[in-house]
Hints:
Distance between the termini: 169 Å
Helix content: 40-55%
Oligomer: single chain
Strand content: 5-15%
Largest sheet: 5 strands, parallel
Number of strands: 5
Amino acid sequence: MSDMGSSxxxxxxxxxxxxxxSWGEEDEEMKMEDRQGPAPxxxxxxxxxxxxxxxxxxxxxxxxxxxxxxxxxxxxxxxAGAPCRTSPKIFTFDAMTAxxxxxxxxxxxxxxxxxxRKRRVLYPNRRRRRAPKRExxxxxxxxxxxxxxxxxxxxxxxxxxxxxxxxxxxxxxxKTLRREVFGQQGAVEGLLSHLKDYLSTYVHNKPLxxxxxxxxxxxxxxxxxxxxxxxxxxxGESLVLQYYVLHRCPxxxxxxxxxxxxxxxxxxxxxxxxxxxxxxLLVFDEAEHMHPDLLDALHGLVASKQPKHFLNAVYVFLxxxxxxxxxxxxxxxxxxxxxxxxxxxxxxRDLTPALRGSLEKRHALWTxxxxxxxxxxxxxxxxxxxxEEMTREGFYPDRxxxxxxxxxxxxxxxxxxxxxxxxxxKQVVAKVNLL
Length: 435
């Protein structure tokens, strides 16, 4: 026991470093003394307990030091990224070489690597993978309902437009006019355009008023007869009026009575058309001979302040008013350089504003009308009129004979290489009847 006390006191004072074998011998001696039993005296027992406690503390310190050295040397049990621990060197081991000391001194704590954070969306169990319920607002349902109503209204309006256009068979009318009206392509296109826009619906804020003007023999009366014949087939005889001024009211003294009769006739027609939901057609030929009383009566009927059944009607006026302006414009503005271009454009479009001004000075009725001028007919158009009339009368259309007949018609002096007829196709019927 005295030897153990001396050894423990020597190690406690730190006189030198001891080897691992000396520590093992001390452990064996302590174990043997523990087997021998309790000490005979109290003083010896207390010293023994103190020695055991000191040895246990040193053993634990040695064990802790060994673990730290193992971590520093990079043993198999080291933890990556563990913080480097430093503690005072109390014990020195002989097994450590100079190279190990240099490696320990030069080695630094390895830098801790930053882990890249994986952006993963962690879902719960598949059985519970459900989207949150969406709350439907009442306003959303109202929006869907409103969209459906607007769609149905637009679709119904489009269907009604198609039904109205099909009812009046404007495609058939276009084919007829292009086949039988010669040299008036611009006027025919303008007439069909106005009719398509107006007849596509039944509700209007004003009636459609068309005024066709041109020199003698350019096809005004023929165009009016074609329009009246077509509308008789689609809307009925009772809803079409062909009014010849010199035939219905030849005397000026009867003009007031003619105006009252005309107003009563038109009122009955538009009321009947309102019941049948159709649009009537009223054609007034030789409008240049109309008395002011007739013009006043018609102006009152086409005004927008009339009842709604008066607003659903088509008025067509045929006259030779402004024929001098039209003739002058055609003869002075047609040249060989513009002859090819005028076939694709209306040469009388620039004349429309001036013609409207002169017509409005004559009567206020033409302020409500759309002006459509008809130009002069060329020699080729006169030949087409002869071919059409000869075919209708049963004659063989011999081209040399047709050219001979067309040469008998009076023409204006050639302008730009083109010959324009003075009387148009006015003398065609009379000449064919003489054959």
